[in-house]
Amino acid sequence: MPRPPRLPPDAVADGLRELPLWSGGPDGIERTVRLPSFRAAVDAVVAVADVAEELDHHPDLDLRWRTLRIAVVTHSAGGVTELDLQLAHRVDALFPTDDPA
């Protein structure tokens, strides 16, 4: 399945305006979610994994106790694509705040 092309910087900036919990730029975007417990953070990893599998687009996940860092980039495109923004929106639907405790 072909991957979408890298977005120009202005398109990434526009996309990030719709994703206020995310930061980054054309080379990648990320978000940190703080959960109420380690178990909740592990469950969050599973929830993100389910979305990633559905989209066939897999973020880098870094779990540190109750904090989950989610980094998204389309490596094959060398930067952020529409698929990354779509995944970010899906993550925001799972975790509408950065501290869902």
Helical content, roughly? 25-40%
Please summarize the sheet with the most strands.
Answer: 4 strands, antiparallel
Low-confidence runs of at least 5 consecutive residues: none
What percent strand? Answer: 15-25%
Topology as H/E string?
HEEHEEH
What is the topology, as strand order, of the major beta sheet? 1-2-4-3
In quaternary terms, these chains amount to: single chain
Count of beta strands: 4
Query: What is the overall shape?
Result: globular
Q: How confident is the prediction overall: mean pLDDT?
A: 94
* Number of distinct helices: 3
Distance from N terminus to C terminus (CA atoms, Å) equals 38 Å
Tell me the structural class: alpha+beta
C-alpha Rg (nearest Å): 13 Å
Describe the structure.
The chain has 101 residues and is of the alpha+beta class. Helices cover 40% and strands 21% of the residues. It is built from three helices and four strands; from the N terminus they run H-E-E-H-E-E-H. It has helices at 9-17, 38-55, 82-94, and strands at residues 23-25, 28-34, 60-64, 67-72. Strands 1-2-4-3 form a four-stranded antiparallel β-sheet, with helices on one face. Strand 1 and strand 2 form a beta hairpin. Helix 2 packs antiparallel against helix 3. The protein is globular and about 40 Å long. The model has no long low-confidence stretch (mean pLDDT 94).
